[in-house]
Amino acid sequence: MPLAKDKQIKLFSQNAPTEKEIFCKLQENFVPQYKAVFHDRMAAKTVVVIPSLTLDPFILAKIDGIVHYEERLLCLLLLLRMPRTHIVYVTSTPVDPLILDYYLHLLPGITGEHARQRMHFFSCYDSSPVSLTEKILARPRLIKRIMNAIPDGHLAHLACFNVTEHERTLSATLGLPVYGCDPDLLFWGTKSGSREIFRECGMEMPPGYENLQNEEQIIKALADLYIADPLLKKAVVKMNDGFSGEGNAVFPYDTITSKENVEEEIRQLLPRVLEIVATDLSYELFIDKFTSMGGIVEAFIDAPHKTSPSVQCRINPLGKIDIISTHDQLMGGPDGQVFLGGTFPADEEYSVEVAALGRKVSEVMKRKGVLGRFGVDFLSVKENDQWKHYAIEINLRKGGTTHPYIMLQFLTNGDYNPDTGKYVLVNGDEKCYLFTDNLHEDRFKGLTPCDLMEIAMLNNLHYDNTKEEGVMFHLIGALSQYGKIGLVCIASTFERAKYFYDQTLKVLNSECY
Questions:
Q1: What global pTM score does this model have?
Q2: Domain range spanning residue 122?
Q3: Closest by alpha carbon to 400, among 380, 425, 377, 417?
């Protein structure tokens, strides 16, 4: 006897796979797919690029031109040099065709027209502060267009800036795996989770406390640090999911006048003296955001010789660990808390050392089940001609050092050797670069992408494929409204890379009137 209709519906809903189960199955199937086609230049495959910064919208809103940061992964258009690869790229707002042409003209051995036929761009036409992935999920017709853009017979996957529950939903909706980490593991990419990983690795960290949840715990942590080390000058309060330093604040201990009741004095001082990095973020809002996401307090490491190296790591679907690159990050803003750019490779005095530390972290991350790219940041201090490396945080996502290195790799077809700390081309030549996401001048406002291209051509600033050196621009869409542009200056020496940077700045300043 057949079941009643209402019982059929109930039985079906009980047996239907959950979103998590669908996602896990897609990720499981990604392993043979990766093995079969990922490194085959002639394989028919599609990469669906979702450059969504799915992070705290309140913090992101403090970054000028944040919607244009979706352009940073345009470097993946260089994958079109593989003649049967298609790219589907989705953005919040349309990308100027001139910017796309700028990337396509660099493709070796591929005509622009051939590449355009394999390039599919979609826009949500929505510049609101909601994440791009959420915008896509709210547009079912757009989702259908994305699916229809993938040619029959192509193996496809999602390439995302970071992977949260929203990206997991999109993955299950599109039926595509993600080359990235299961969002259930995101804790290991928070400030608190990073410290737990570093402790498991037995690595040096700044003295501090993690898994803090409220103002009272911040006060107690600050007091305990000072009692343990009365010579400590500053401490840093960090939200777990802060981005580019925008979730950080610095507490100066020189405001403490008595050692009798440190905790009570900090309680009174904290609202007045806490130096919040994000602009226009009040103390009350900072504490509210900290309470909602949790965070850490750790000692501010200060020294005459201090650098901020970063190691970019990757765990592929087959479980292989790659140390992709090392960088020296350039930090600015109050107390050097804001990421501005960097140089590649990291200083030869310690690049091999930090790469080895990055591998150590990667081994633990692999055991946790992590997949894809992530960065490990350090703070390095030189004492008695020896470098001491403090592990600072893990960024479980693509980051500020991802797109410059992808540009270099696709433009020069070389590779980084973490055992030597050098990037070497097939012919044996070495390459390096200087990059920034934050070349920011009010006088640049009003320069359109067309203006920038003309200025670059007239002043010989473009990347030269024949010499394998020059300037690559990114964040071009942010230039006219925000006066903000990104640069990757590629050369054979740091001196030459710095020359390109200085020349670009000089030319842009001279052309603005």
A1: 0.91
A2: 5-180
A3: 377
